[in-house]
Amino acid sequence: MYRTALFILACCIFLIMLTACHDAHETDDFAHVLAVGIDKGISNKWRITVQFATLKESGGSKSQVTGGYETVEMQEQDGYAAITIDAPSFYGGVSMINSILPRKLNFMHTKLLVLSEDIAKSGLVGEYLAPIARYREIRRNVRVLISKGQAYEFIKENKPFFGKTLSKSMEQIVQECSNTGFFPNITLGDFYNDIKSTYNQPIAILASAVDGSSFKEKGSFWGDAFKSEGDYVAGQLPRTGGNKIELFGTAVFNGDIMVGELNGDETRLMLMARGQFKRGFFTMPDPMIPELIVPIDVRLSRKPLVKVRFEGNKPIISLKIRLEGDLLAVQSSINYESKELKPVLEKAFEQYIKDELNKLIEKCKGLKADVFRFGGTAARQFDTIEDWEQYNWNEQFENAEINTEVDFDLRRTGTMLKSSPIKK
Amino acid sequence: MIKEGKFGTHEAVCLITITITAKMFFTSPGILADILGTATWYMTLLSAATAAVGFTFIYLLLKRFPGKNIVEAFEASLGRFCGFIFSFLLAMLFMLNASAIVREFVEVLKVYVLPLTPISFLVGTFVSVVAIASFLGLEAIARYAKLSVYILLASFITVLILASQKYETFRMFPIFGHGISKTILHGLFRSSFYGEVLILAVVAGSLQGTKYVKKAGYLSLVLSGILVSSALLAFTLTFPYYTGAEITAPMYQLTAMIDYGRFLQRLEPIFLFIWFVSSFISVTAIFYTSASLYCKIFRIQDMRPIIFPFSIILFTVAMIPNDITTTATEYIHRSREYGWTILYISPLIALIMAIVRKKRGKKQNV
């Protein structure tokens, strides 16, 4: 009797439990948002743009609806759509978009959070970021981009260049920072932590939609002057063709206000000092014939060595960066591979990096932004959080004396062990 | 005498270690970061050491009354009335702790995983499972704990290793957090985090003797201390003290942040597995202990009829808190900060009284 009752009870439970979860959703119940853009609004406080997969092919269309306090614009691309809406808050905007879509917006697969430069410079980032960081669907791995120009225009141009998968395309373009070092890999978690940080100031990826105006088809030829490959910020690369977005350089913040920009070269030096530089091709003037160049594939050989001591209230920082690299080309055909000339090239590169690094440090001191994370090392000198916060590292950074040292070893010379001169 | 089954030291260590460490997956690390800043990871070692001292009182009391569990030891030392009060306080504390953990578990589950499911359904399902497991008895729970501990430990270590990509050593500094005196004070008070070691004293009859209680107790405190400290250290290295205090479930967040490119990311399911299984074992062990204490106090021979009404109490108490803030900062925080008074002071009083009144149990040939 007892077993029969138990069996019937179990059957009843299974009948109820195994039918389905009452709050379950199928994958196609959602519109998976891949990128979120935030601008200052015109019809309401915020202009929110969401880009999501529609999983259908279309030639591309645009529709616009304007009401009393809201403007909705929908831009359809091949397999993707972007909706821009003016709303009082992020959640308000999401609700408004949900009301016009047959599917519910879902942010679990969001890859990019794009904030306009306008918002970043007006100190509204903190106000906007807090609710996003709190939202359970948005992961802290989302990359934070500061768009030169409007965020919704950036998202409009955000299309897959290879293949048709936008999410893969976005992940790959962000991962490129480990091959070039021209922009940092900053996630929402990093950015949110750094906005409130007592150790350092926040940075974000600088991005831009490209209109092609940086590429000059006509004009006088460049000549022999040297301009580094990283001497640009997003939107300035002199190119034609390719995708319509650029991630290049760094947006520098003081608290939640954007106070400056670092170009690609400066970004690489900053990443070296932070110990986050993976590798990148550097072009330097030939030490013996400066009108020619020597490209080198550079990487960090070890984590940078940072020491901080205090003279009174003044921090004295010593920074030692240890690099190694492979020779990629020698235009002058001078035999830098030889035992005698290799140190010449190494010393020249060390000096080149050191000079540029010192310039960058002065620039950041001027911006009152410790983007190098020296504060992390300085905090070791303090016993308690109260002492540390009272010292206020972010304010003291501009008074710091920073001594730099660069050590570079040329490890390999590519497929050639020796450069022979061209016979004329 | 209640038949609670027999199990060995291994099972006991697994049961107690899981019961203690499961609590770290909820809101505690965030609240600790708010109070102690960067000093949480070694504060917990101090708590474990304090709990070991508290457990020594319990062990000495049990040693003085061989073959008896803590309820019988209280009665033998303090008399029937005072012993009843001490034991009843323990039973209430365990029931409150079990309810608070159920509610905390469900609140965090709602925040991160199942936001649309009604809370009563989640609490009800969890309590049903706990009741069924308790019905099967302590031996079954202990053996299940041993069975799952290897997978849980492997998953836990995997998560901590994979999360190392987010670790930054500078986040450990300033090393003394908000001051060494505050750290020591909270380290001593929060020893009740490890208070579940007292379960061994309640079910002492299931082990082979007092010396096995001692061995299992100290071993589980050492293991729990190491595991909790490493989780808190991982949390400290990932989240700086000023934002770490904001996060509802830091361990879940830590797992969600693991990202090794397109092929290795979104590892929350591993965490959810550890989280569900360990929470289930933890609540069951605490709930069972509460019911067991009740039965021993009132000399009820069969525990099974008690399980259902106790489940109703568990469900009801778990539904009382109004919101997650009340659960985390009132129920959980207070029970961690003041639980030691019941967990360790009452056995100490009983031990002192037994010494003063020269009470001693008969030696047993084991």
How does this structure look, described?
The complex is a heterodimer of chains A (424) and B (366). Chain A has 424 residues and is an alpha/beta fold. Chain A has two domains: 27-217 and 226-262, no CATH class; 271-419, Nutrient germinant receptor protein C, domain 3 (GMP Synthetase, Chain A, domain 3), CATH 3.30.300.210. Chain A is 29% helix and 29% strand. Chain A has 13 helices and 16 strands. Chain A has helices at 2-17, 90-100, 117-121, 125-134, 151-156, 166-175, 177-180, 188-195, 264-274, 342-366, 374-378, 385-391, 393-396; strands at 30-40, 46-53, 61-66, 71-76, 80-87, 104-106, 112-116, 143-148, 203-209, 245-254, 257-262, 279-285, 293-300, 305-311, 314-327, 401-412. In chain A, the strands form two sheets. In chain A, strands 1, 2, 3, 4, 5, 6, 7, 8, 9, 10 and 11 form an eleven-stranded mixed β-sheet that branches. The mean pLDDT of chain A is 87. With 366 residues, chain B is mostly helical. Chain B has one domain: Amino acid/polyamine transporter I. Chain B is 72% helix and 0% strand. Chain B is built from 16 helices and no strands. Chain B has helices at 9-21, 28-36, 40-64, 70-78, 80-112, 119-136, 138-162, 180-189, 199-202, 210-238, 241-244, 250-256, 268-297, 304-319, 324-338, 340-356. In chain B, α4 (70-78) runs antiparallel to α5. The longest helix of chain B is centred in the first third of the chain and has 33 residues, at 80-112. Chain B is globular. The model of chain B has no long low-confidence stretch (mean pLDDT 90). The chains are: A alpha/beta (424), B mainly alpha (366).
Quaternary assembly: heterodimer
Structural class of chain B: mainly alpha
Annotation field: number of helices of chain B: 16
What would you call the shape of chain A? globular
Arithmetic mean pLDDT of chain B: 90
- CATH T-level topology of chain B: Amino acid/polyamine transporter I
